[in-house]
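RECORD TYPE: inverse folding
INPUT: structure tokens
STRUCTURE:
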């Protein structure tokens, strides 16, 4: 059955819209992966730097019965900072991704 020019034009527009939606979905996934990788790299980098900065390079002395003394050392603050930073970065990426997904 032959189609009219209007039907052909509508089908072309429908297919173009479908291709555009698929491309937008690919871009969202790509941005999310890049943001997650960047945050992970930042957290790993900070995990190597912050404990040394907080303790000025001095490790706490924890031996024998005083093994809980390592929690009183200055490095604990660095590790807590890394945990909080990781949580905040994860939430920021999730919120931004959800806002972008809702907008599209």
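DESIGNED SEQUENCE:
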């Amino acid at each position: 059955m032959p189609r009219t020019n209007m039907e052909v034009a509508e089908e072309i527009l429908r297919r173009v819209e479908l291709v555009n939606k698929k491309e937008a979905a690919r871009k969202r996934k790509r941005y999310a992966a890049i943001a997650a990788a960047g945050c992970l790299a930042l957290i790993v980098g900070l995990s190597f730097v912050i404990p040394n900065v907080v303790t000025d390079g001095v490790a706490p002395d924890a031996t024998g019965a005083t093994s809980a003394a390592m929690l009183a050392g200055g490095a604990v603050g660095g590790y807590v900072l890394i945990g909080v930073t990781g949580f905040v970065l994860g939430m920021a990426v999730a919120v931004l991704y959800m806002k972008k997904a809702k907008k599209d």
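NOTES: The longest helix spans residues 5-55.
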